[in-house]
Amino acid sequence: MPLPVFSSSKIGTTVETKYMPLAEEAPLMEGSDTDLPLANKKKSSLAAKLRAQAPWIVSGILFILLIASLTFRRNDYYVHSTSTSSPSFETGFDLELIPAKAHIRMHNVKYRGTPQFGADGEEYVDYLPGEVRYVGPPSDEIDEAWNQLTTRRFFLLSAEEAEAQWGAAYKKYWNANWGGYVASLDLFHSLHCLDHIRKSLYPDHYHQGKLHGDIHNGHCIDHIRQQIMCQADLTPLPSQRFENVNKNYLDSDRTHTCRDFSQIRQFVHMRYNQSLTGNEVPTGHYAPGHEGTSSWGPV
Question: To the nearest whole number, what is the mean pLDDT of the chain?
């Protein structure tokens, strides 16, 4: 049976279809794949299949590249996002007390206390109404302000906490009288030292014993020196000219980025109170054969 070959001619809008024997009316075009050797036919067939599948192949390659790109970006984001939890001023450093790090909060604080000079050249500090004072001639108000900073600064560490902070040498810090490993954060020791130096300026008012003489004063000065150098605050201070005294002085009333002291103080008070009462003390052993804090007596 002859195969139909469609030929059409337009008569107006009518399409005429004629059926003809394939051999007579539809000779093969030169170069048609039916007159090629078998090997060439297979190659031509493969090429045709590749051409037909090319859009799918390209789409597949693009999809793989897209997934790879998204994976790379995700990994890159993960690296950068997790790097924010690496040791820093905002998150805490490796040598700092581990449970205290969760209480670090950041905020900006404008320092106060830069001396001013009157028309006669007299030096003064312009305090705000109700501002807490930490310096000046001895007074109950100033003493109480310092007490608020420095009292209740000691607390107990468990043996696990002590070992994590001080390594194998932690056992030598066991305090049998106080029933645990007694610690204080460095910043509170520095505040204590600064208060001690303040009191040493008024020896007639503050009578300090032999253990708090020149050697202790020197220790406190040197400890504060080391802490200042360690912190290395890079906030720039401008120099201001005071013509009435013919001198330049730094304006130290600048805004600084600080850890929120109140948050850290709250953490220390919490640990102090737990140590004092023996309730809700951090889990762990305080010494072989010693549990609780019955003999706790911090100052």
Answer: 78
